[in-house]
Amino acid sequence: MAIGLGATLDKFRLIGRIVALSRHDRWPRGTLLKHQAPRLDDLRRFALVRSAFYRRFHHGLVEPAADATDEACATQRIAYADHAVYGICSPKERPGMTARPFIVAPRDYAPALNIVGEQLTVLASGEATDGYEIFLQRGAEGSGPPPHSHPWDESFFVIKGQVDFGIDAESTTASAGTLVHLPAGTVHWFRFGKGGGEMLSMTSRLGASQMFADLAREVDPVNPDLGKLADVGARHGLKVAV
Fold it and tell me: Which pTM does this prediction carry?
């Protein structure tokens, strides 16, 4: 009896979570929750999907269209035999999304951008992916940006050398094989260590690639004007913290 009551309470908690998420004002209008004899596993899986897509919309990866409806895009489906739960539209299925599979070999790399002495190659722009962006960053010893923050998540994976990171008031040294993740709004900086280094970086949405192109074009990489750098970055939501 206790087990049955616990499962029932768990189900009601999950239903409450789904309803709360579906009422969030950043959800597309018209996305409906439809369920046929849902089991506890169905609800748990659906709640996780809702949460994942909420985080993506909340951080700006895909801005939902104001007039999006279930009829305008395919629905996310989770099936268990003859049971099914339907709900949120997948961002990749929204009208206007045009991302296609692609491969970027070294011979296909775009020319590296010189960002204050750091060589940055755009491997995948937000225009190509309809969302996230990927970069290859190579820097000489001591190169790197001043403390700053921006409205997109950013992750770094160190490939070669060591890189000193400052994250809010803390600092750490990341060696090859280390991943550093920074949520949007986090004040951070980094410096390539002795002998220089190399990193892959990824941002959660379109924005950084356009900013890097403007910085490379408008800011002197040898004797950078910090005020000019801050002005260019501000156009893209970047805030220099010094």
Answer: 0.61
